Amino acid sequence: MKSGQTIEGYKAAALRLAQSEPIEGGKAYFAEIPGFDGVWAQGPTAAAAKHELAKVLDGWIELRMEKGLQLPLVGRAKPPQMHFA
Predict the structure, then answer these.
(1) Are the CB atoms for 79 and 61 separated by under 8 Å?
(2) 7-66, what's its fold?
(3) Which of 7, 20, 21, 67 could form a disulfide with 46 if both were Cys (CB 3.0 to 4.6 A apart)?
(4) Three-class SS string for 31-85?
(5) What's the chain's Rg over C-alpha atoms?
(6) pTM
């Protein structure tokens, strides 16, 4: 991700870091993004868990930005700066 990246590019880069693992004896999957505290989801398949994770990430980013909290770095690049009017 380059400096000045769009929010969509930032989300895509963050989701590339996502990890998933089977839980409940393989009946469900847990997904998270390391370094993004509180961003996790679960679903019946790894793909479903990652799809839910993308929704959670959207809300998490929006909330942090509304509260003026910094977003974590993804790689070496700084996250996009967003301003609300």
Answers:
(1) no
(2) Double Stranded RNA Binding Domain (3.30.160)
(3) 20
(4) EECCCCCCCEEEECCHHHHHHHHHHHHHHHHHHHHHCCCCCCCECCECCCCCCCC
(5) 14
(6) 0.83
